[in-house]
Design brief:
Thiol Ester Dehydrase, Chain A, 3 domains, 20 helices, Aldehyde Dehydrogenase, Chain A, domain 1, alpha/beta, Aldehyde Dehydrogenase, Chain A, domain 2
């Protein structure tokens, strides 16, 4: 029989069997935890000393590349994980969310890092702000790695995705992490960590794993460390007030199980497509992972005159769900994760029955062998006797295939019932009417971390109520924990330290590795566009010759572009405008500036692929003279090549266009691909 091991300080530990972990399907022993206690002082020291240094020997771009390679490696070995995940009661679809969804999160964060983070280990949150009239003193913000350890304490329901959705932004931020999975399904997490270590991709100390108790781990953390938790609201509340976390102001982020809801708007009738979409969404959230999702729909809020129709169709759909051992053909819903979870859900159902009536309890006939020894629970549908009463489904969560119907009179009452959940991760509003959505969503947003608006159009591509996405925030207020995860780069920034920096523009440029306007520039006889990526210096600059704008310029540009807006051609109307005269097209100014600074011959600049922060600051009239300054602002080495195999990097150029009085008329960044000499 397998004894699981912890991965601590670069080695696997654990030989003596301890707690038995049982298959959720038939109760046989899958593995044991280990009896040895990890040395958490050693684990913390190893993370801070070896993990931090090995991660920061890389930069954001390199770590993003590793995440991509790691995602590919896990996908290549995914069948090993599917075979193990089966014991947790997960169907193939359930495991797909966990395994391939986890790998997908690695890919997503690899993309975020490649596209949006710089080379190096410092993020400049600009722009810099002048703090003096002459711009000799300025301020800005930077984000830097914290230099500590991230402890991730995870729930049992998604033993792989739950780990990877925290690991990905932590790793990208350059912070080593220690994963503590829930014991019941830790054998799945351990298998994934073994693959990650076997890949050879992870820097030393980047990832540690503890099977079993955290012992005195939280008491050994320091101010640069971070703790995240996913699980019950009660456990989150206990961990949050750990004296050592409070003493050292250690950030604690909780994503707790919550009483999420779905609202059927009053404009939807049983004959509408949206009615069936609503029923389907509720049924799916009750049965995927056997309802063991922190995002599952627990409260089903429907118009009072629709409650019987919803109950009838929902019961009919749930009755078709085949429950049993996920390895058996045709099974659509597996058991709960453990017998302990089964007992807990049963107790919660009994508590809910004190305020609700039973509409449906599925028959206890499950497909498979020895299912009596498994952790099965058929779907249970309840109806609240008084949705406004204290307690009941507004306070009690059965973490399984259990939902409670609640009737309402008007939309305001529905929104009030939704708020009774005291803060949730997600809510769904099903409506055909955009005005209903416009009225309801702001009210729902105050109590929910995500609002999923569903109608026939969105259903064609909707990822569903219960699916957190890497690019959108996951978390919610109040009972849901008050924390945030995912959300693109927002999650990475949780593991970085934000600091305000003040100084001269030249000093800020040196600190941020990014040109700040007003800083000293580097001017040479070589045009910056003639330099290869490696040769370019931040601050390398070109001040162009001048060009006087003529009426012929406006006429020619108008004919070429088709833009005959009156401000460019109607002398009388333009004179009566706020500018008092005809002015040049803004895009003519942009084009004319390009003509001033472009080096036309073949050279290292391969392509211009965009503009950022474009602003037309002051009007340019006929007879005005413009001049441009082009400055190398930022370099990003993504380790990429052109389609012809030419190594290249990204260069952002700061462009200032001024008039004859030195006043700024246009400001923007140009993004280019620049070849490397090598």
């Amino acid at each position: 029989m397998t004894t699981l091991q912890s991965f601590i300080a670069g080695r696997w530990i654990g030989e003596q069997a301890a707690q038995a972990l049982h298959s959720a399907n038939d109760g046989h022993i899958v593995a044991h935890t280990h009896a040895e206690r990890p040395d958490f002082a050693e684990a913390c020291e190893f993370a801070r000393r070896r993990g931090v240094s090995s991660l920061l020997a890389l930069d954001f771009q390199r770590r993003a590349q590793i995440l991509k390679a790691l995602g590919k490696y896990l996908m290549e070995h995914k069948e090993q994980l599917y075979a193990i995940s089966h014991h947790s009661g997960a169907t193939r679809l359930d495991s797909w969310i966990d395994i391939e969804g986890g790998a997908g999160t690695l890919f997503a964060y690899a993309g975020f890092g490649t596209r949006e983070l710089p080379s190096g280990n410092l993020v400049h949150e600009g722009p810099a702000i002048p703090l003096g009239k002459q711009n000799h003193f300025a301020g800005t913000h930077i984000l830097v790695p914290r230099g500590g350890l991230a402890v991730h304490i995870n729930a049992f329901n998604f033993p792989i995705w739950g780990m990877l959705e925290k690991f990905a932004p932590t790793f990208l931020a350059g912070m080593p992490c220690l994963i503590k999975p829930a014991t019941a399904t830790s054998y799945v997490t351990e298998a994934c960590v073994r693959l990650m270590q076997q890949s050879g991709l992870l820097p030393e100390g980047a990832l540690q794993l503890v099977i079993g108790s955290t012992g005195d781990l939280l008491d050994r953390l320091e101010g640069q460390d971070v703790v995240t938790f996913t699980g019950s609201a009660d456990t989150a509340a206990k961990l949050r007030v750990t004296p050592n976390l409070i003493r050292h102001s250690i950030p604690f982020t909780a994503e707790a199980d919550s009483l999420n809801c779905a609202i059927l708007a009053p404009d939807v009738t049983p004959d509408d497509e949206e009615f069936e979409l609503f029923v389907k969404e509720v049924a799916r959230e009750m049965t995927v992972k056997a309802g063991q999702k922190c995002t599952a729909i627990r409260r089903v809020i429907v118009p009072q005159n629709r409650i019987d129709a919803v109950a009838e169709r929902l019961a009919a759909r749930l009755a078709k769900v085949v429950i049993g051992d996920p390895s058996k053909e045709g099974v659509k819903m597996g058991p709960l994760a453990s017998r302990d979870q089964q007992a807990d859900v049963a107790a919660r159902i009994e508590a809910l029955l004190a305020s609700s009536e039973l509409l449906l309890r599925g028959e206890a006939q499950f497909v498979g062998d020895n299912t009596a020894e498994g952790a099965f629970c058929a779907p249970v549908l309840l109806k609240s006797r008084d949705p406004h009463a204290d307690g009941g489904a507004h306070d009690i969560e059965a973490f399984g295939p259990v939902s409670t119907l609640m009737g309402y009179g008007d939309l305001d009452e529905a929104l009030a019932l939704a708020a009774r959940g005291k803060g949730s991760l997600v809510s769904t509003l099903v409506t055909r009417d955009p005005q209903v959505a416009a009225r309801a969503v702001p009210a729902m947003a105050a109590w929910h971390g995500r609002v999923h608006v569903l109608n026939g159009e969105a259903a064609k591509e909707s990822t569903g109520h219960g699916s957190p996405l890497p690019m959108l925030k996951h978390g919610g207020p109040g009972r849901a924990g008050g924390g945030e995860e995912l959300g693109g780069l927002r999650a990475v920034k949780h593991y970085l330290q934000r600091t305000a920096v003040q100084g001269s523009p030249t000093m800020l440029s040196a600190i941020t590795g990014e040109y700040v306007r007003g800083a000293q520039v580097i001017e040479t006889e070589v045009h910056p566009f003639r330099r290869h990526f490696e040769e370019l210096q931040i601050g390398e600059s070109l001040l162009t010759h001048r060009r006087t704008v003529t009426e012929a310029d406006l006429v020619n540009f108008g004919c070429l572009s088709g833009d005959h807006f009156y401000m460019h051609f109607d002398e009388i109307a333009a004179k009566e405008s706020q500018f008092g005269k005809r002015i040049a097209h803004g895009y003519f100014v942009l084009s004319a500036a390009a003509g001033l600074f472009v080096s036309p011959g073949v050279g290292p600049v391969l392509a211009n692929y965009g503009l950022d922060t474009l602003r037309f600051v002051s009007p340019v009239g006929i007879g005005d003279t413009i001049q441009a300054r082009l400055t190398c602002k930022r370099k990003i080495d993504q380790g990429k090549q052109s389609v012809l195999g030419t190594p290249q990097g990204v260069v952002a150029w700061d462009v200032e266009v001024t008039n004859q009085d030195g006043a700024l008329v246009a400001s923007y960044d140009i993004l280019t691909l620049v070849a490397k000499r090598g």
